[in-house]
Structure formats: C-alpha cells, structure tokens
Amino acid sequence: MSQVSSFDIFDTLLTRLVIEPTEIFKICGDRALQFGWLNFSAETFRSLRINAERRSRFFYEDAEVRLDEIYREIGNTLEISAEIIDKLKHLELTVEAEYLVAIPQGYQLIAQVRRSHPHVLFLSDMYLPANFLEERLRYFGFWQDGDCLYVSSNLRKSKGDGKLFLQVIKELGLQPHELTHTGNNLSSDVDKPKSLGIQAIHFNDANPNRYESILQKYVHDTNGITSLWAGISRYTRLHKASQTPKESIISDIAASVAAPILTAYTIWILQQAKARQLVRIYFLARDGEILLQIAKELAPKIYPELELRYLYVSRQALRMPGVTQINQAFWEWMFDDTDVFTVASLLKRMCLDQQVAQPIFEALGYPCDRWQQNLARPERLALRAKLEQHQPLHQLVLQVAEQKREVLKAYLQQEKMLDGKAFGLVDVGWRGSLQISLENAFEIFGTRNPVGFYFALDKPTGGLKHKGEVLAFFFNLNNSLGHRYYLDSRYVSAMEVFCAGCEGTTLDYALQLDGRVTPVLKHQANQPALDWGLKSFQMTVLAFVRHLVERSPVDFPLTTSPKLLRDALDHVFLTFSNSPTQQEAEVFQDCPFFDDPNELYHYYWAMPLRLSHVLKYAACQSEIFVRHRNAWGEASLQISSPLIKKIFSIAIAQRKFLKQCKKMLT
User: Fold this and answer.
1) Which range marks the domain in which residue 180 is found?
2) Has residue 193 been placed in a domain?
3) Which domain of life is it from (predicted)?
4) What is the pTM assigned to this prediction?
C-alpha cells in the first residue's frame, strides 16, 4: 500500500489571528456583553469558559470533551436560559471562523503528498465539532472529497495519548510505518506517533517565535491588542516568500520587531494629529520614508481628512539656512562628534567652497593636504577655538546662510508649508534639531510653528528650545515623561536602521528655470542599504500594516492609545537588542550605518570586534569596545572570533577592577 499522510489542523494548516486560543473566549465575552447576554466582564467569561472545559473533562475517561458539553457546564454555573447558552455556543463558532486563517505552507505540504496519494487524513485534538472543522478546511481549499477527518472530541481518543493514531491505523488497516503524520506539536504530533512506529514530520513555522510570545505575555495589560498584533506578525512572516536564509531572517525581524514598533508610533501620530485637527503632516526625509508609507495605510481608518506629505530635508540641508547668528548651538552642530571628522567634512557642513575657504584655513595652519586627515579630539577642540574667534569666517558663513535661506523659502512655499494652516512634522528624534532649524526659518518667513511628533526626545543641545509644540511617543526628556529618563543609545541606532530610506540624503536645494525647487541628493539611491536588503525589510513592515488594517476584526478598532503597548514593545526590542541570535547577528553584519551628516562614509551596524579594541577597553584606554560608537555591541560580539568571545567577560571584569582601584586611589 502507498504511504498515507495525515495532518494536524491548528497551527499546521490553519491558525488564528490571535496567539493564545483562549483569547477567542475573551472576545466572545466582549461581544456577549455588548449584546446584553451577560452582566459581567469579558475576562470573567474567559475564566468561566476555561474552567467549564476543565470541569467537563472530569466526567470522561479519556478527558476529551465536546463544545456542547462545555456549554452545558457553563449553563449549570450561570443558571441562565438554554436559549442564551445556545447563543453563546454559536457565538464561539462564529468568532473562531472569523479569526481562522490559512497557513500558506500548508497548501504546499498537502499538494506534495497528494501527488502520490489522492486522499489525506486530518487529525485534531479539539473540542470544536467535526462538521465545523470540515467546513473550515473546505472553505480554505484544504479538503477534497474522499478525505477523512478524525477529531478527538468525537472519538474520545487523542493524539496526545496515541489512541487517535491507533484508531486511524486500525480503521484503515495500515501498518504503523505506512502512515506519515505532520504537525506542529513536538509531543503529540512527533514524539507520540514515532513511539508507535509512525513516521512524523515536525512543522513548526506557525508556532509563535520568541518576539510573538513576548507580545502575548502582555495580553491582559493591553486588552488583548498584543495578542492580535503577535498573530498579525505571525501571519505576515508566514506569507513572506523569502528567497534566501538571509532574506528570511530580515523579514522575520521586520515583521516581529520593527513593524509593531513603527506601527504603534505611526498610529499614535495619526491619533494626535486628529486630536489637534491638523490639516497636514510632513514626514521628514529620510526617517520619514517608511513612516509615511505606514501612515498612508493607516490614515483612512484613523484620520482620512489628513494630508500626508514627504519633505526632503536633512541636518545638512536645514542647519545652514536656519543660521542667523554664530552662537554656541552653531558650533555644537559644526563640531558634532562623529567618528571621522576632517576639515573637508567641516567645510561640507558650512557649505563653503574650497577656493573660498582655502586662504582662511591655510592662515590658521590647515593647508589643503591636511584636509582629509581625521582630527583627534584635542585637534578638533583646537580648531574650534580658532574658528570661534575668526570674525571674517563668521560673516562669510552668514552670507552663505542667507543665500540658502531664500532657496529654502521657495521650497517650503512650493510644499504648502507656509500657507498658515496647522501642520505637524514627523521625525524619529532625537533632539528635534530639524524642527529647530525650520522654526528659525519660520520666524524669518513669518508663519506658524509646527507640532513635532517624535519617537523619543532628549533636550536640544546648545541651550536651544523649540518654539512649537513637541510630542514624543516613547519618552520625552523635555517634560520628564515616558519610559526612559535618559537617551537610550540602543533605540537610537536601531531606529536609524529600521527607518533607513531608499534614497540618498538631501544635501541642498536647487532652483530650476521654471521656478520649481528640487532637492539635491547625495545619491539617487541608498545603494549600501538596498544591497543589504532594505527593500525586503520595508515590504515586510508594510505587509504587517496592511494585514493589520485588512484582517483586524471589529473587536480591535484603531482607537486605543498605542502607548498602552509600550511595555510590550520595549520588551520585544530589548530582547532583540540585548540577546540577538547568531543568525540575526550575521544578517546585520553588512547593514550600513551612516554617521556623517553628508554621508562621506558609512560603517556597518554589526562588525566583528578587534582584539586591540577589546584590550584597550579592558585597560580603560577606550570608552567603547566596538569599532564605532553606533555599533550594535551584542551582535558584534556574536560574530567575533572564538578567542574574543572567550576573553570578553574577562576584559569586562578587568575594566571593572581597574575602575574600582582608580576610585579607591582618588
């Protein structure tokens, strides 16, 4: 006889849009309360439903019960009419049907076995009726005439104790080795059939990954939202067809880590824009590129009247037009402490032509042949001290700033930013410097100030303050609110990666003959990020958002403040950041990270540690052990040599010991 194949149903062929099956009971409780069938909370109904199933099992030898028996026990507890009990039972079936979705890989698994045997078997340890399960399998295209269904509650036998498998073998007259079973549960779908001589295949793609399991833990704190979002994450990654192992991991991180964080942030932005009745929102390049695409999917459900626009800006493009005086803030920006700082990069920031700048810098002791030299910190301070006293340079900078400001004004007018209507700016963070630069220009142009929306916000440097309102999703150190009391560098680097754009950075603006103003980009394409896999990353994030919009049942409207999810999202992020897997670390090994505002160079987010760096760190000769200040340390360690992994903990202990000794001596 040819090989016969059987399949588990739940999380093998079908799965729910919520991670934990008991969430279905809570949703039923919510609806029953709205219908006036119950007079207690949905959580109470969930507990009642769970306990009724447990108590019903006491009365059956093999502990397999049916939905009718469970609701008979609920009726006994509540002592309400049989009509209401019947309505509650049918409500559960309705909700189950709404929340069930097909697993794409399931079609491939079944198509493969049907080539050798036309009929398949479906086995399920389940309280739901067999006719309901068959109808769902037919609905999703898994069932064909001639297939057979074996349900534990109907037969009072389960896969878990092996009796359901023995029933199938006996009924079909098979030898154990002639049956191959596929399922997601390692115990009941793999170990148990193998112990009976049945071949077994473990299919666990639909089992929650570690990030989805974390979201599920916060289900009670978020009124069930994180269970749905975890389910949407699972649904998204199951539907992403990846060509390579690298692309698969990129998609998994996009669906399970980045997408929930970016989606929650964008929902909050739209909710706040609606509350303030803003006419339009500008998403600032390049961090705003993916956020704008997310907002376009969500806005019709939250604030359809809002106009969404993209504004080509950057620190480089806005800082100089916003300069009206040479002050402390100006020098803080010019000497922003990037890993590589040269005279050439300084001139780029000042927008100074080489021929104009050459006599000034040569007179100060910086000939052209030194302009590409990376200046050490003392050299940077010395150069800054000289330039702060150089009045001719100050005048030159102010003249350039005035010229840049006129072109910027034309660009902002073209983008309707100066029409006096209420608008907002979206930027990830971290000190709102772009908003300050724009506000400096607005003060001169004579228009209203914006509302700034940030993921997280620290206080501006150089003693500056925002003139318009600034709001932050995760934390705002300007008003001491949120989930951090310090600027968390882990989020800074990760959000830069999550929100990377596909185009090059904006350097300047060009006035065309027809009066239009076009942005001048460093490159037309952000090729290093595209080569890494940025498009696949973005497509997965957007797939998550679309699934959330299209698949979310009526039980989860987008009206709850997503700040309710911050604890859960933070836990997911810190798990990713602090304990990446080896595969995750390897995938981000060639993910580019741009440190310089003019993108004169880039590093990689995770780079193997060098022995010299670790030794200098251990000897307190360096403040960082990674190869650049924005590197992902935990991932860098994961992909480092076995020697460095072995001595790293010793280096940390050595550093701690030396610092303690120094403290005692001083």
Assistant:
1) 1-202
2) yes
3) Bacteria
4) 0.90
